[in-house]
Amino acid sequence: MKWIRELRAARLRRTSPWQAALADLPAGLESQWRASAPREYEGIRTDAFFYTRAAEGLLRFFDAVRHSGRPCALPSEAADSVWHAWLRWNPASLERFCLRHFGVAVPHVERAALAGNALLHTFAACRERDGIQPRSMRLPALFGLDAQLRMPGGHGYWSRAGEIVHARLNERGRGMWRARPHPELALTVLVAAGVVDRHLLAAHLGGREATADGGSCGGMAFADGGDPCADGGGGDGGGDGGSGCGSSCGGGCGGD
């Protein structure tokens, strides 16, 4: 299994749009991350593929910050694990790396200190950088990272029934069944910010009316209102871990 994950990591480094930046990561960062991440993120995998995917996610976030020019929230605990390890190990090398590859130094900001729409800034920038058209509700790659890696305690995002839904992942990296619409990424918010087309909202509202008339949605149901960070209950729980709803930390340059 180890050699398969190492092979997948090598293939990702060759094919990633961040190939040059991944190749330029400091040689000692992976071993530092492997030693320190399990102490901060209980149950995290420490294989080569997980590290490479998480590091690529961090690069996507730095690019989103640079592209947005506004405070951004990081929607991935996996990516944040690499950021934390790098900050503890060699913050000067991290700053030099960001300046070399992104033209800006990205400060690490605790979630509580970020602006309320920092997650929206990240979502908008990531969609644009991923080439997602306004007529699509496709999720940016960074927002799907924790669920794909099954990051324990991570942030799960999915595009379901015309909404972006979120759930805190449990210790096995699962949580889709209890995902709820995320208020910072509500369809009305995305339309008002110009991130998605208005026709999507009209189609969504029309679908809800049809569901109400028909009495069945024919798929996954999501409760309106309530706490989008709630764990739902049952054995698939898992606490919020002290992080803000929908993201871990953040960064940014310039004002809001």
Fold topology:
Blueprint (H helix, E strand, L loop, with lengths): L1 H14 L3 H5 L5 H12 L7 H21 L3 E2 L3 H13 L1 H12 L15 H12 L15 H5 L5 E6 L2 E6 L11 E2 L5 H6 L5 H17 L35 E2 L5
Helix pairs in contact: 1-4, 3-5, 4-5, 4-7, 5-6
Keyword list:
256 residues, mainly alpha, 3-stranded antiparallel β-sheet, 10 helices, 7% strand
Mean pLDDT: 83
The number of distinct β-strands equals 5
Helix content: 40-55%
Unreliable stretches covering 5 or more consecutive residues = 209-244
Whole-number tally of structural domains: 1
Shape: globular
Compressed to H and E, one letter per element, the order equals: HHHHEHHHHEEEHHE
The number of helical runs is 10
Strand content: 5-15%
| Spatial gap, N to C terminus | 45 Å
Which structural class should the secondary elements be placed in? mainly alpha
> Tell me about the biggest sheet?
3 strands, antiparallel
Rg estimate, integer Å: 18 Å
Strand line-up across the major sheet: 2-3-4
